[in-house]
Design a protein that fits this description.
With about 350 residues, this protein is α+β, with helices and mostly antiparallel strands. Helix content is about 40%, strand content about 10%. The chain folds into 3 domains: about 100 residues, Hypothetical protein, domain 2 (Endonuclease III, domain 1); about 90 residues, Endonuclease Iii, domain 2, CATH 1.10.1670; about 120 residues, Nucleoside Triphosphate Pyrophosphohydrolase (Alpha-Beta Complex). Strands 1, 4, 5, 6 and 7 form a 5-stranded mixed beta sheet that branches. Strands 3-2-8 form a 3-stranded antiparallel beta sheet, with no helix packed on it. Helix 2 runs antiparallel to helix 8 and helix 9 packs across helix 10. The protein is globular, with a radius of gyration of 24 Å.
Length: about 350
């Protein structure tokens, strides 16, 4: 497998050449960004982060708002908050040097078992066996494991660890990742050019394309809510506010809104959560967005407030052009576009 990797490895901006020692900061940053996100999407963000914050200490000294703003588009914003928190800990408590063991890495904010394993193996060549989605697919096919995910995960981890060599475990882990990404793909795996084709039980049994098996997912529920588009009368500025640090989209900015509730939630309950009592006009249509665990439909209510009333509200008043200066998640950008399209001129 290492011979295959030496010839066929992917060239990625955070990787060193096979056999060379990578920068732990690059490995950690890329692993956090790659969670739930494709390699193609991460590439430009990784380059932008390194240009702006070349070291973990530079990132630690950054303002959280700047980090969240730079993260816009990657989603799963808790990662960005934990990224910044972790950088601060590494800079202040470890003199800017990452711990070089799984145990040490697990003590850092935002680093779970997989990330600790991956950084230990790839950045420090520790004998560790990370298992991502690509490796799950490779191992389940190699051993023809027919137990569905997620129940089969412990067996995959055990078999993957048993195969990990003492020499170059980091390159070996990346070799399996590349094999899954380029050869042992989810659909139409290229078994004819796979270095493990002779040993692959899934190929021999003719079931490789069907592995790994997955349990049928429950349908996502739908939630509803209101967004309150508030203009200030004298200058047309719009009210935005920061969301609480904890919870979904924590620390990001929002158009003020109600809680997101079950689809049969009473309108008067959500309206009672408006930041001010006003003459609201409901705009045509709704804004739809899908999160990991639920779908969301938001109705946008608009009003214009006299300056005296507007200045009593908590938050920031900004021009339309100035909205780009705030770390607005995708759902809020959709709400802004909807309000500008359907709201009063």
């Amino acid at each position: 497998m290492l011979e295959w990797y030496d010839r066929h490895h992917r060239t990625l901006p955070w990787r060193s050449e096979p056999g060379d020692t990578p920068d732990p900061y690059h490995v950690w940053l890329s692993e956090i960004m790659l969670q739930q996100t494709t390699v193609q999407t991460v590439g430009p963000y990784f380059a932008a982060f390194l240009k702006r914050w070349p070291t973990v200490t530079d990132l630690a000294n950054a303002e959280l708002d700047d980090v969240l703003h730079a993260w816009q588009g990657l989603g799963y914003y808790a990662r960005a908050r934990n990224l910044h928190k972790c950088a601060k800990v590494v800079a202040s408590e470890y003199d800017g040097v990452f711990p070089d063991t799984e145990e040490g890495l697990l003590k850092l904010p935002g680093i779970g078992p997989y990330t600790a394993c991956a950084v230990a193996a790839i950045a420090f060549n520790r004998h560790a066996s990370p298992v991502d989605g690509n490796i799950e697919r490779v191992i389940s096919r190699l051993f023809a494991l027919e137990t569905p995910l997620p129940d089969v995960k412990p067996e995959i981890k055990e078999k993957s660890a048993a195969l990990t060599p003492a020499d170059r475990p980091g390159d070996y882990a990346q070799a399996l990742m590349d094999l899954g990404a380029t050869v042992c793909t989810p659909r139409n795996p290229a078994c004819a050019i796979c270095p493990w084709q002779a040993d692959c039980e899934g190929r021999k049994s003719g079931i490789a394309p069907d592995l790994p098996k997955k349990l049928k997912k429950e349908p996502k529920p739908t939630r509803v809510g209101y967004a309150f588009w508030i203009r200030r009368e004298d200058d047309g500025r719009i009210l935005v506010r920061r969301r609480p640090e904890k919870g979904l989209l924590g620390g990001l900015y929002e158009v003020p809104g109600s809680d997101w509730r079950a689809i049969d939630a009473p309108d008067d309950v959500m309206l009672s959560e408006a930041p001010v009592s006003a003459n609201w006009s409901e705009l045509d249509g709704t804004v739809g967005h899908t999160f990991t665990h639920f779908h969301l439909n938001v109705s946008v209510l608009a009003t214009t407030l006299p300056v005296a009333d507007a200045d009593k509200l908590d938050g920031s008043w900004t021009t339309i052009d100035g909205l780009s200066d705030f770390a607005l998640p995708t759902i809020m950008k959709k709400i802004v576009r909807h309000a500008l399209k359907y709201g009063p001129a």
